[in-house]
Amino acid sequence: MKNNIQGVGVALVTPFGEEGGVDFGALERLVDYVTDNGADFLVALGTTAETPTLSAEEKRDILAFIKERNRKGLPLIAGIGGYDTRGVIRQIGETDLSGVSAVLSVTPYYNKPSQRGLFEHYKAIAGESPVPVLLYNVPSRTGVNLKAETTLRLANEVENLLGIKEACGSLSQISYLLRDRPQGFKVFSGDDNMALPLIALGGDGVISVAANVFPSVFTRMVEAVFAGDRATASALQLRLFEAVEALFEEGNPTGVKTALAVRGVMENRLRLPLVPGSEALAERLRRLIDKYDL
After folding, report:
1. What is the pTM of this model?
2. CATH number for the domain that contains residue 192
């Protein structure tokens, strides 16, 4: 199970209904939409799923539903993270991880631990998790950067790590990881527009927000990179990049939910403190989808 995860993973959003609850009908449409259009694996309960606004019961029900609806049996990764190490371990222990390939765990946020603290945090989690742990570094959100040397130390010294979802925004930091990682330690892009260079340098894929909306074009681009078809990959990336940028103009998942509403997959509803995207954003996304045949 540990080594079969590669390519495009979709960081699934959580659709909400008119009364504010989880819209499982829309979630069913979304899972079918991305799996039928080339997704290689699924990621539930990540940042894009508005996880901080979900109750423990909702998280349980969403994960169970995605497992059941995953008709193609794609690898499934579940997000479980936080800034309290014991609390994260407790959440992992309380979650039904049957059918789950790995746990995606973001670096502790707000309390800004040192590199030593980050190392000990992940060492403790990996030692207790019944499935491999995928590190998640996204300093723009957490306020702390898991440095390349710390990631490499974890990769070499700690068992039960699948790899890292790297969203540091630095190709230099990513290059250190790809050059010096031990065999079997996977590196996934956490930034959609960094997927092409990361995979071209030898990375293992991407955990994508954009693939919620553009799964067919996005997965074709990634497949072309893996195949060494530079011309096709570059052409598809150039079709995608402006729309991908637009997805993040008003925040995430504000943009992706706006685009999915344009697509007719779900309603454009979020939970406070997030609010729906503007009509101007919806119109821009509608225009880009039509112009570039996305």
Report:
1. 0.95
2. 3.20.20.70
